[in-house]
Structure formats: structure tokens, C-alpha cells
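FORM 7B: Structural annotation worksheet

SECTION A. Query
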Amino acid sequence: MKILIQSLFFLSISILKLNAQQFFIPYGRITYEKRVNIQRSTADWNIPDAAREKMKKYRISEWELYFDMGRSLYKTNKKAHENDNSMLFPLPGESGNELYSSYPDQRRIIKKGIMGEDYLLSDTIPKVAWKLSQELRIIAGYECRKAIGRISDTIYVVAFYTDEILLKGGPEGFSGLPGMILGLAIPRFNTTWFATKVEGFSNYADQIVAPLRGKKTDSDKDLQKLLEIYSRYQGIRNEKPEETRKRLFGFLL
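SECTION B. Predicted structure
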């Protein structure tokens, strides 16, 4: 009888340990809904009132983040529906853009479409100075804690992260919190990202591959040429090359 009780005790401990291990998600896929407030983003544009009244308020797109313990690939879901306004008002977030991140060596590769050509940009993962908060919010069924960060000195970012997912990553390349970012808002850009579905313990290792198709910009000559093209694409004039580079290698795809 004593042996039976001991066996049951150790079995219950093993089950508790197994459940505890399964509580933390090491790999999977997260689906995000990205919303851009078109009306606010185009407030300074010279758009006739009649046309503005017909505009939908939001441009909505769906993005997916494939991840494991040390890598992630963030890209749009091309099959998902986008508002018709996305073609009329091209805002950050081209449909073919991708972001591959390798966290052990703090490197990332961005695939970005510019004037009909795909370019591959290699860079270090940018850091955000976060300030943690006690505020909680449930996103996609996970309890998330609020944090506030700042990029480009004056742009504030609000994030909600969960420590139930082990990779310390998030959408658009944001990272550095004690878990995965499931909610993100940048008021200056009138844009939000919120997870709608988390597929934990689903192995997508074959999807987490750095983009290979695109023009490389490894040399200074190639990068300088790309900065000139990007300046024309964005209508930027009289800006220092380092400022243009910050725009090109920024957080938003």
C-alpha cells in the first residue's frame, strides 16, 4: 500500500511538471490584425471632401509571425482580404515585405519592395528602451502586461506582452520585453497590431527561413544607390543619408 501511495505521488508530480512545461510555448504561429486609421493618416493630404467621405476609416491587413526558440519570420498573409483603400492610399506595409530575425546573434534580414524591386537589407536587431507597467489586458486568450517604449527619440510605442510565449519578439521587429508582444500601438502612425490567433506547439520550422530573393545591399556602393532610389520613392529632399537610412531600416515594413 505504501508503494502504491508513493507511486501515485510521483505520478502526480510528473503530471504537474509536464503541465508546467506545456504552459510555456516554445514555437508556433501568431496571426496579427494590423489596422491603419486612413482618415487620420491622410488628414494633411489634399483630398476632395466628397472623396474623403467615401473613404473607409481603416485599412486592415493580416500578418503572420512564425517563431521558435531563437528565430522568427514576419510576413503578410497574402490570401487574407485587405480593404480597397490599401491600393488607393499606399501606407507602410507592402504585401511582399518580410522580416527574418535571428535572436542569438541579434541579426535580421528585411525584404522590402521599393519601386517594383525587392531588396534585402541586413542589419542588427534594433533595441527599444521599455518601461514596464502593471496594467494587464487579455489578448487572444493570453494575459498580457503593458509596456511603453520610445523609438526615434520622440515616437512612443505601447505594447502588451505575454511571458507564456518564450521568444522575446513581436510584430514589425519589436522585441526586448520579457515575452512575446501580442498587442502593439503607435499613436503617431495611427496604427495598431493585435494578435487574433495563437497556434502554440505547431512546428513551422520549414517556414522560418531568411528571404533570399532580392537585390543585396552588402556593399557601400549598393547601399548608397538604394538610399537614392528610396529618397525618390518617398519624395525626400535635402535629407542627410544617415537619416534616410534610419527611415529605410526602421521598424515598420
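SECTION C. Observations
The helical segments are 2-23, 38-41, 49-54, 85-88, 220-234, 241-248. The chain is about 25% helix and 35% strand.

SECTION D. Sign-off
Analyst initials: ____
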